Amino acid sequence: MPRNRQRTTAKVAWTEEDLQSAKTAIEGGLSKRKAAKSYIPFTTLRDRLKNKNMSNPRLGRKPVFT
After folding, report:
1. Angle between helices 42-51 and 16-27 (to 10 degrees)
2. Residue 7 lies in a domain
3. Rounded distance, CA 52 to CA 34, Å?
């Protein structure tokens, strides 16, 4: 009997509200590292602030067929 497949990527552990809260905290004077400990992972926060890409998070590969 086949075993159940384990998900290779974790589900997103943060929400858009967490991202907005982290952004406002940084604008208020909190460092990125401290905001990352409270809200979302540091690399995610850095990438979202650097690229101004505030869209919804996506997991996995891009679809082949459009």
Report:
1. 70
2. no
3. 20
Q: How many domains does the chain have?
A: 1
Rounded-to-integer distance, Cα 46 and Cα 43, Å: 5
Give me the DSSP letters along 7-58: PSSPPP---HHHHHHHHHHHHTT--HHHHHHHSS-HHHHHHHHHHT--S---
The one-letter amino acid code at 27 reads: E
**Residue 8 domain flag:** no
Tens digit of each residue's pLDDT (9 = 90 or more) over 5-53: 877 766 777 888 998 999 999 999 999 999 999 999 999 899 888 886 6
